[in-house]
Specification:
alpha/beta; 10 strands; globular
């Protein structure tokens, strides 16, 4: 009898430690890996990605390619491979594609991708994206783009590292995760459009997209506190995605979730202004994580010394936990809205 009681108690303890799944219990509690995402590491990466040596990361420029080389070096350091079916960490995006809609005289560029294969449902893929391009230089001034979108770029590195550590310790994600650094966002979301028109994995197998664009600062509406983030689009296609965002935030991060820019009549139209939109347009549940604009938006003063690294850390952790739930829940989220 004692043995039976012990086994029942152990079973209850194990299930209580799992991540909440709206439809069923999930797996190992991610708190340990969430805590590996630190302000110090994010700051180290960002001072490199948004340094003057990257020359503003203009699409196809030598500076952008240097930034790409740095991203790849970090994935290699953490032993995170490029995706199955790819030849390397690059998805070439030709100038002919970038200039087809409006000739902006852009050079050949690249999306950069890294990949962690799922343990149980490897054919199902969660895509986490951020654009690593910015606007380059103007009148000899370097536009560093620390927040836009150096912040999202380095967040991907930390999230990937956390998932890779989990996999190394036997808690790899059930579904595969594609870490996608897209090019040419600033010129019209071209890099993400190229990916969805030339997907490495079938669109029908893409479970969701989490897109990070500007998560290192605060806007005027939140002058008193940076403990917030805007969520845009989570409920547009899947009520489950929106519920996941709310649940994991309450459980692990406790940011104030602001839905102001999610309104259908938002005059800023942010829902269509970053790379998640190319996924959502194909019916893939997508959420855009965003801090809003500020006085340094698209100015040479968007520099890494102005980033609020405590806010950047918490928003990166929120993204990680949303991805963890999407990758590990028993059933993929459903599309229940048009």
């Amino acid at each position: 009898m004692k043995k039976i009681i012990f086994l029942l108690a152990f079973s209850c303890l194990a299930s209580c430690q799992g991540t909440k799944d709206i439809s069923t219990k999930s797996i190992y509690n991610p708190t340990k890996y969430n805590n590996t995402i630190t302000a110090d590491e994010l700051k180290t990466h960002l001072y490199i990605v948004a340094s003057d040596s990257m020359e503003g990361r203009q699409t196809g420029s030598a500076g952008q390619k240097r930034a790409g080389n740095y991203l790849i070096s970090q994935y290699q350091k953490d032993k995170i491979p490029f995706p199955k079916g790819a030849q390397n960490y690059y998805q070439p995006v030709p100038a002919s594609f970038l200039n087809a809609r409006k000739n902006q005289n852009l050079s050949d560029s690249e999306n950069i991708w890294a990949y962690i294969e799922g343990t149980e449902k490897p054919d199902e893929v969660v895509v986490i994206s951020a654009h690593y391009d910015h606007v380059g230089t103007k009148n000899d001034a370097i536009f560093n783009g620390a927040d836009d979108d150096g912040s999202g770029t380095v967040a991907l590195l930390e999230i990937a590292q956390a998932f890779q550590l989990a996999k190394k310790e036997g808690h790899g994600p059930k579904r595969s995760i594609l870490f996608l650094h897209v090019t040419a966002e600033e010129h019209g979301l071209h890099g993400s459009r190229y990916y969805i028109e030339n997907p490495l994995f079938p669109i029908k197998n893409t479970v969701a997209n989490i897109n990070i664009d500007m998560i290192g600062r605060r806007d005027e509406a939140h002058a008193a506190s940076n403990n917030y983030v805007y969520l845009i689009g989570a409920d547009r296609l899947s009520s489950e995605l929106d519920e996941i965002c709310k649940t994991v935030n309450e459980k692990y991060v406790q940011l104030n979730l602001d839905y102001k820019y999610n309104a259908l009549n938002d005059p800023n139209n942010f829902y269509r202004r970053s790379d998640h939109y190319n996924f959502a347009a194909l019916g893939i549940p997508s959420v855009f994580i965003f801090n809003g604009t500020h006085a340094d938006y698209h100015r040479k003063t968007d520099t890494p010394d102005k980033i609020e690294y405590d806010a950047l850390t918490k928003r990166t952790q929120l993204t990680f936990n949303i991805a963890w739930e999407l990758a590990n829940r028993e059933n993929r989220i459903v599309v229940d809205k048009k």
